Structure formats: C-alpha cells, structure tokens
Amino acid sequence: MKIRFTPVAAAIGFATGMLLTSGAMADTIKIAIAGPFTGPVTQYGAMVKQGVDTAIEQINAAGGVLGKQLEAVSIDDGCEPKQGPVVANRVVNDEINYVVGHVCSGATIAATNVYNTEGVLMVTPSATAPGVTDGKNYDMIFRTIGRDDQQGPAAAKFIIDQIKPKNVAIIHDKQSYGQGIASSVKSELEKAGIKVAFFEGINAGDTDYSAIITKLKSTGADFVYYGGYHPEMGLLLRQGAEQGLKVKFMGPEGVGNPDINAIAGAAVEGMLLTLPADFTQDPSNAGIVKAFKDKKRDPGGAFQLTAYSATKAIADGIKGAGVDDPVKVAAYLHANTVATPIGKISWNKQGDLTEFKFDIFTWHKDGSKTVYK
Asked: Which of 11, 75, 116, 122 is the most buried (most CB within 10 A)?
C-alpha cells in the first residue's frame, strides 16, 4: 500500500508509534471511475459508470470486501489525452488505489505511466488500442476488453468472408483508437488480397464531411470502414446519404452508441459494427441483468458488463490477496482466473486478456442492434 505523508505528519506518526496507511484508516475502499462525463462521447462514460455502480451495489449488498464497503468516485477526463495524466495525478493525490477506466484509448495511454509508477491498479473496460499495454512492462494495468488487433482482424475476416468487396475505402479520425483499428483492418484486408483504394483521416469534431464523401464517390468503393467514434460516423452516414453515396459502412465498438441515431437519422439503418459478444444472453447473467434493469440501466451496451467485470475483478483481487494493497492485488490478478459476467478471465504478463470475443452486429434506426446472420 502506498504511504503518502507530509514530513510533519510522518514525524508525528513515528514519534507516537502509530504510523498508519490511508487504506487502514479508510472506512471504504474507493474505486475511481475515470472517463468522459463531459464532451461529445459522454455516453461511453455513462455506460462504464452504470456497470461499476451496479457491481458495487451488488458487492456491497453481499457484505463488501474484507469487511469494507466499496465506494465509486467519478472523475471526468473528457476523453482528452491531455487530461489523462491530470486525472491520474488527482487519483494519486486523493489516495485512491483502484481505477476502472480510462474509457478512451488516448486518455488511457496518457494516464497509465502515472498509475504504474505510483502503484495504482487500473482496469480499463473499453480502451482497445494496443498502445495501452504494448512494450510498457507495466504490472498495474489491466483490461476487461479485447484489443484492436483482435477486433480489427475480426472485422476484416467478416468483410472478407461475408461482404466480399472489390474496392474498400477506409477512413479514421487520426486518433490512437480510430487510426489504430483502421490500420489493423487495412493490413488484414491487404493480406487477403482485398484492394484498399482509399485510406485517409478526418478531423474529429468537424461538422462537414462533404469533401471526404466526394472523394469516396470518386474511388468507386463498394464498402467503407470507419475507425473512430459515433459523432463522426453519424455525420458520414447522414451526409453520405444526402449526397447519394450508396455503400455499406462498418465501424468498431466506438460507433455503437444510441446517440448516433439522432445524428444519422434513417441512414444509420444497416450499419455494421464489432462489439463485445452480447453477454446479457448468457443465462448465468440473468440476476445481473435484472439488477441493471431494476435500476433502469441498460446492461446491453458496449461497456456496461465489461465495466461490471472490471469492478468485480478488483473486488475479487482484493479478497484473493487478503489485503487492500493494490500491488498485491495486481500480483493476484496476474496469477489467477476471475469469474465475471464476460466469462472466466485471465491476463497475460502485460495485463491483456488471454481471450476475448468480438461479434458482428447490425445497427437499426430504432436504436436496437442484432447479431449479424
């Protein structure tokens, strides 16, 4: 456990023989939820918060962890990479030992070094960029979701086997997550001999993509893959339809947000996307699904059950380690399997899941989604 004292406090503690860690004095075990609670992708933060809140409520109702109740503390990073270290340092200064988040890959990558250096255990339920963990030799960073180099090949295999396009256009938002997964899809398609005639970035936050749509039309692409989040995908779909672009679009889990319907309108019908498998259909999760619905929360979004699983992994790790010490909890997680709503999960040395399944879904104009058949 980290010990953070001023010199005066430390002197007093040693003088009295009563030096205590902040964890030993705390009435609760705090878990920070780090993610976007403001900005254009707040719903992803809300998805994660729903998962964490539901898990904490159930864990606390069952007696808590080591005799203590869990407490969630939400901290906003706006999905901004520059806010990642700011939030991470706030977590450290507030003496919070566990984090579920960050949500967006860019902010996550920017925050991880602070957590690992300061001995804070972080589990992201949504950041899929390989750069979160690759080449870092971190001990304190984990995921409860797959990586883009798992999601990208899953999307590419579907495109190759089911769509069988002749000419693919790939667009991305120039960010860690969007460009990373777009590059993964491009690589896999090219390995299979599929022509990628167009690979270009757009500026996230722009409102007029008519120029890129004109370029798409000129390539003669019969399929478009977009790497990024739902606000830009929604505009591409709507503005493409308005300009007579008649091709199928596909994206990653970042486009799987009900808010896309308000942006794209009817043009969203039939959009394809990769998402974590629908764990709400697992009969063993019936009680958890009911707990979500009893609180009028949606268990079926992209990140609710991965966030629930991240929280449960932290709680089970504390129980397994037998002590509220994030370093020992991390060691326990690296060495053990944890039962969660997304299945029995384990991690490799760098904190990535040893196995994770992405499925292909079709999105509908009423906001629902169905597994592609």
From this structure: 122
Is residue 14 domain-shared with residue 136, that is, in the same domain?
Answer: yes
Residue 202 belongs to domain spanning = 149-270
- Amino acid in the structure at residue 322: G
pLDDT at 4: 39
Return the pLDDT at 373: 79
In a domain, 155, yes or no: yes
CA distance 63 to 138: 32
- C-alpha distance from residue 273 to each of 95, 254, 315 (Å): 39, 9, 32
Which residue in this structure is represented by tokens 């390989």? 130
347 with 333: CB under 8 angstroms? yes
CATH number of the domain enclosing 133: 3.40.50.2300
Average pLDDT score, the chain: 93
- Residue 234 inside a domain? The answer is yes
Q: Which parts of the chain sit beneath pLDDT 70?
A: 1-26
Nearest to 225 by CA among 244, 201, 203, 251: 251
